[in-house]
Every structure is written in structure tokens, then in C-alpha cells.
Amino acid sequence: MMDFANKNVLVVGVGISGNAAAETVKKLGASRVVLSDSKQEKDLKYDLSEVRSAGVELLFGAQENSLLDGVDLMILSPAVPVRVPLVQEAYKRSIPVISEIQLAYWLAKSPILAVTGTNGKTTTVTLLGDLMKTRYENAGVGGNIGVPLCREALRAGEESCLVAEISSYQMEATTEFKPHIAVVLNVTPDHVVRHGNLDVYQQMKEKMFAQQTAEDYLVLNYDNDKTRDMAKRARAQVCFFSRLAKLEEGAFVQDDWLTIVWRGQTCRLCRTDELKIKGGHNIENALAAAAAAFLGGARIPKIIDVLKEFPGVEHRIEPVDTVDGVPYYNDSKATNTDSAVKALESFDGHIVLIAGGDDKLTDLTDFMTLVRERADELILVGDAAARFKENALKLGYPAEHIHEAGYSMEEAVKKAHAISGPPQVVLLSPACASFDMYDGYEERGRDFKRLVKELKA
Prior knowledge:
By secondary structure, the protein is an alpha/beta fold. The protein has 3 domains: 8-95, 3-Layer(aba) Sandwich (Rossmann fold), CATH 3.40.50; 101-309, UDP-N-acetylmuramoyl-L-alanine:D-glutamate ligase, CATH 3.40.1190; 318-456, Alpha-Beta Complex (Protein-Tyrosine Phosphatase, Chain A), CATH 3.90.190.20. It has 17 helices and 20 strands. The strands form 3 sheets. It has a 9-stranded mixed beta sheet, with helices on both faces. A 6-stranded mixed beta sheet has the order 15-16-20-17-18-19, sandwiched between helices. Strand 4 (73-76), helix 3 and strand 5 form a beta-alpha-beta unit.
């Protein structure tokens, strides 16, 4: 780990991670810390008063190469790609470039349990955090979940553990990161615009376990071809989980029971219908979290208790309310088609689906095929509406059941209320990012919930 005393540190990218990294290295003794963002301060929706009071300098606008003069270390926010000119110039000058995740790894005094994957990360990490808190009261939970991991590393301290949600963006500038337990849930097409292609995206996922040793554990989804194949490149002890297959060893479903078999020990946890979280994908998330917690030292009776009580996370097939006999569900976290498919599979048809937003331009065939099978009505919003409509029609979805609501969630909710009735459900599962209409999926989901509550009122 770097000794920050008398060091000159440049943090690039205002945001949850960047702000926390800047404050942390300043508190650790860095003589000068500059936080730079290419946007102007008035265009950033962050309160920077704490960053300023910590003694961090803030620079906004054009990022000239002179920013690098005298810099000993660059820390990147996850939203900043390594391809930007300032970062490339840092590499040319042999200035070390790291992520906030790597900073957290340097600071951590307890083992890290890290979870990545295209879908299911937040649910799995939240559940795993609850499971590990039964063993370590002070366990930290952070990363891509919206809590800076560097702060949690300092807070958790020694004789505890850190549970981390890790995205491909966070791994891009990470060169040193070795979790004691790594979990890879799945790999499906996503973030191709950022990484260029699916192979690079997968490489970012695999970086998470690349430095593990035989003392460590790697928990992999046996049902996903790409994650199952990762076992060939693992140096850690591999523990598979599977919803579909009975495994000789690992975590799996047997006769509707979540079961762990490991090193000759067999543990039945709970029945699938005892989980409060909905859908087959959540059985996978529960298996992954239970396996990681078991390997991390959580006791089986405590694992069982938490599995039965875990309510799920906000914005992931979250029940909002029932209006005129029709239940409304907020699945705003479905920012890609694979995640939306899992939501559609969680219901037995009769869905009034609200979809669309900031289009990731991924293939829509599987998604729209399932929409045709499960959704009675399709309401489209945002930038993606035209492409989604075109693909739905191409796959035989009836034109009279497609409705457009422009860039208005209010219009979409009103339309859903007008055309729905029992036994239907209204599901917001956009299959898109939110940035054409909102600052993030959280804001989108909360707006949807507000509008549903107003309908109810």
C-alpha cells in the first residue's frame, strides 16, 4: 500500500466514489489532493461542501495535461473510462492510476467478499451483507451498491469483513484486488459501449479473481456458460451454485430445498417457497449469497434465518401498491434486457409492461419474444421507444396493444391504470438505463412509486 504522507494525488470524476476517495487520501496525510471533473460545478448534482472542508481542491472544466504536473497518484471514479486523454497521458508519464476499489483494498484490514455479474449484484450483496453481519457485527457493505468501499474498509477495521459489489467499470483501472471470496453471478451482454465488446467486458469481470490463490474461494454460476468456463482459469477453490442441476459439491436446489454440499458436509437451508424474494433469478442470488457466507464462516442456523426473512432490495421487482385490484411492481433496476427478462419470468403472464429509456442498443429478440408471451399491453417511454416498438412489431406483438408515453412517466402510469384490471399486474421493467429522463434508476423508480401512490390516493 502507498504511504500517502506528502503525496500529490489527483482524483478524476466527481461522484460518490471520487468524492470519498479524495476525502480519504487527504485524511490519510496526502499533502495535496485535487478533485477534477470535466463538467462545470453548476452541472453536477453533488453537495461538495464536505469535500471542500476536508481540504480538497476542486477544479472543473477542461482537463489539461498540466493537471498531471507533480502528481504521484491518479484515482479514477468508475464513470471515467481509462481511454480518456488525461488518463492516457498519466500512463505515458508512468503515474500510477488506480480505482477507488483498489484504494479500499489497500486500506482493508479484514477479508473481502466481492460480488460481480451482469445482473443480481445488488440483491446478492445486500443479502450477503445481512448474512455476514450474523458473524461480524461490524461487517462493511459497499462498492457499486452506492456506499464508498474505502470508507467501509476504514469503518469495518480488523476482525471483521467487507462485502463489496463490484462493477466492470470499477475493475477497469484496478491493478491490485484480491478478495478472499469472489462471486461471479452471470455474464450477459451489457456495457458494450463502454468496453467495446463482450470479451473485454468479461475480462473486466475475470480481473476480480485473477490474483486469488489456493487459499481463496471462487463462487461461480454453473448454469451460465461463461461463468462455468471461468473455473478453468481459477487458482482459487471453486464452489459452483446451480438452480437447475444437482451438483456433487456446491450450492443447489434439491427437491425444492436450497442445499449446500461441501467437503463431505450436507446442509439443507430452506425451501424455495420460503424465500420472500420473487423469481428464479432470486433463487440463484440466494444460493450464491448462502454459499459465500458459508465459506466466509457464517453459521448454518443463522444463514437459514436470514434467507427466510430477507425482503429484497428497492427497485428490484419491488411491490409498490395495489390500485383497483391491480398490483404495481417497481423493477427500475432492470437496466438491461436480461434483467427485464428475469422480471417477466417472475409472473405468470397478464403483465402491463412499462419499458424503455436510455437505449443500450443490445439485441431485443429474446426480450421481445417473452414480451409477446407474457405482456398483455406494452407501454413505451424514452429514447428507446421507437426501436422497442419496431422490434415488438417485427416479432408479432399486436400493434393495438402498444402504447407510447413520450418522455413522461406520469403519462405511462396513467395509461397503465386506464387499460389494466385484475388479474393483470403493472410492471415497470425498462430494460434500459434511465439517463434520458432521470439521473439514475433510483430516481426513476422513486418517481414511479410516487405516481402509483398518487393514483391510490
